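WARN retry 2 of 3 for item q-0093 after timeout on previous attempt; input resubmitted unchanged.
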Amino acid sequence: MAQWREDVLGAGFECTDLELGSDDEGPLVATLVRAMPDRRPWYERMFHGKRRLDGVDVLYVHGWSDYFFQRDLAAFWTSRGARFFALDLRKYGRSLREGQTPGYIEDLDDYHVEIEASLAVVGEGESEPRPLVLFGHSTGGLVLSLWAAEHPGRAAALVLNSPWLEFQLASTGRQVLMPLLNLGARTNPHEVAPQLDYGFYTRAQREVGPLDELDLINPAWRPERTHAVRGGWLRAILEGHARVSRGLGIAEPVEVLLSARTAMPLKWSDELTRADSVLDVDEVAKAALKLGSTVTVDRIDGALHDVFLSSEPVRAEAYARLDRWLRGWRAAG
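OK item q-0093 returned
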């Protein structure tokens, strides 16, 4: 049985370590965080019936140079009755250990180990499987999409928040880069690419505030500029994009939330507070249609890369769109 302890997010959140073995940098661990729905009094259950997501489990996976810290995001799910779990992948956030290369991995399928370990903990004490919603942001959306494609029927639905499904230079740029990365990965997979992040995305999140949970961020786990991009890691990402491009065939319904526009951050401007400054959202929208047969793409005007860290009116719109989609999903089920 998992040994839960109080999480860094404080009251209402617990976490547990998932041992993953080791690699050439030492022991590997992932961290599973949970938030549980409040138990309602008997009279509320009698007069108001079940909440929309009673009996549902949610597994959230963060993006690149990120970890789970969004208390409001968890509250959205738990207030509707779901049990919410968030996974800090190996070498990210709570799981990052001294001497490890932050976020580094050479095969995205290696993350299947901690996903399976998380689901084993989620299912402890349950006599029957509960409906599972996979919820991924950016790189986490790519990781969960690939896992769902390889494990049909395990999840009941996917919700993807600006998933990184295609390279910023589109498939042509990916095809040009792959031979170079394949060569470099054989000789020096840890070679660092030039840093092109000037901290504008982090600044945009703070400019659109107020958002109290930004004050919870540990800068060692979520730096102002991204972790160093290394050739072996980028090669793994582009291989994932290529798999998406070929079609994943996911049978379960998929909800994709995206900004309405992209802004390339060559210098700071106010436009960066109303657009995705990380991904080419038009390319992601097209790639999303290759995930499976039932895909909804919601484009949200004014959204940042993480749509749930946008300005308050945009956040409210994103939550309303997600709630509408979940109502339809539950009604169909």
